[in-house]
Amino acid sequence: MPLLLDSCGSGSSNLQATDMLRGSGNLAGSAFRATAVAALRQPVTTTRLGLSVLWHRPREVISGNVPFEVLPEPLTAEAPGSEEFEKRLDREHFPRAKAGKLKWLVDGPGFFPEFDRQMAAARKSIDVQVYIFDNDDIAVRYADALKKRAGEVKVHVLFDDMGSHFAQTAAPETPAPEGFSPPADMHDYLQKDSRLSARLVLNPWLVADHTKLLVFDHRTAILGGMNIGREYYSEWHDLMVKVEGPVVESLSREFTRAWRKAGPWGDFALFRKSVIYGKPKPVTGGIPLRILRTDPAEGKRQILDATLLAIRGARKRIWIENPYFAYDDIALAVAAAARRGVDVRVVLPARGDSTIMDVGNLSTARDLIRAGAKVMRYPRMTHMKVMICDDWACVGSANLDTLSMRINRELNLAFSHPATVRELEKAVFTPDFRRSREMTLAETDASFSRLAEAIADQL
């Protein structure tokens, strides 16, 4: 069951993990909320998600196992990063770009100190949404900090029900401090003796909300791939991005919509009048930023569609770093770009956190290397979700797999701005290319079964 949600948790176990009995009870509660509670609170969402899963699951089984070669789409007329490319996204009704300024937060030392600063500086509100709010010592530290601030400002914490409870049954690689005992239920822990409000995102049809979004005073936001827990604090390679400027108003609305939907009124809360926020002030150095979503309940697959348009239009380069690369349509498009001479470089983790997804990565790497691409292994777990196509970039929470492209809810930012793309290149790709080792075709010939490959295509 955890594989059907997402593969973003550790597989080790020690005293830092919830014990099996309590963990089983929490998961049973999640399953009940995902079925009976979700059907009552979110009847529209549950129906839409059911129809979406019923369509996309069989589609991926068929498309991933066709007995003939699928021809790639032809080169698109608009090069990614160009003004013409952005105009095409507008014509095809992608969300309009709004101005914002970005700051790259690489790894735990980049993100968590900025989280501390923003928590301390908030004067009105702190809104936190993550896929996993773990129950290890790092998560408890941040839960305590948020609870303390809740005595002074409004604090809302939203996290995925099943995603978090699965993660809490597995511990990080590094041990907890001596004597630490994980809370049995972080939802209860966050609200105990506190004015903090915490809600769980329900999981009808095992669909998860993989979004990571933190908003402070509706004026500063942080988003990307990192959850709250020890893996993200000190073990994994990952990326968040700090955002300031007018686009934060839209990100605040994204949080508010998810928060309302997770409340007792569920789908019906969305009929309430929209919240009016004070518009964030324009910022020096702001650029057009486009918010992209995967949201099957809303019929949105903006991340997939924009990604394919960019890959099919790339003339110079396609650089990708992602922990899970198993989505056939994207892999086919990237291979076609490599064959037409585009500089294709893909960074994958040397060892991921999911054996099945490692199989999917090897299968994709084999096809890309045969097409002429460079596939590299980062020396440890990289959880980054970053792509540059020519002078267009896309970063956020979405993996390159079926779950992120079609099933789960995801949040990415995309932009066409050469100087900012160069900053991303320097912050992520230049050092990671240097640290990574190029794979050979022989390394992809692992003895994995067709069944394992087919399962990876579903995830």
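Second entry:
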Amino acid sequence: MYAIFKKDIHQFFSSITGYVAIILFLLANGLFLFVFPETNLLDAGYANLDGLFELAPMIFLLLIPAITMRSLADEFRSGTMELLSTKPLTWWQIVWGKYWACLLIVVIALIPTVVYYIAMSQLAATNNALDGGSILGSYIGLLLLGGVFTATGIWASSLTGNAVVAFLVAIFTCFILYNGFDALSRVAVFSGGADYYLKMAGIRYHYDSISRGVVDSRDIIYFLSLTGLMLYLTKISLERKIWQG
């Protein structure tokens, strides 16, 4: 597993694509949070990072599929997946190696955003300090969200040898999981009880809950369960492709 993890990290940063993806993520955050007037944190009148945690999931919808799209698709395209299947590795070791490599890259992209916290802390008045507990909860929520999106992206990459197709499937699936259930709960036909359960089935409900600074074990279990489900589907997809191949 460590060999796969190491290979994927090296492969990602050996091309300019990896650096561009991270730079664009940070650039988009910087522009929205400190330049564009509608979302500028400096115009809010009080110190907070709410804009970051509202914006980051939308940027994740593009960033994480870009990170994961080649993780397994390139293995199928180049024919190395068959070679991997003959090595003394279990399917779970392959899946976990790919997953941790991609998730580490997501974490690396997030680390520089701590600068926003430092900057806002310095700009805040003494009686208007940042709520550290709420921000920590929001970062935990963002990491859990990144974990689900990463697992979903790897699953999408296991379906095809075309990285572009994997990218598009991952974006669509992540969007449906994040926003689809919330949107569906607002349909009039589901009002009166079913709307609440539909909303709970989606990622956004649990992410918003953690982002308020309340780290509920039920939300953590939800994220971990969904991540585990997507990784299990990835394993099934890999086994099926090798058997059919």
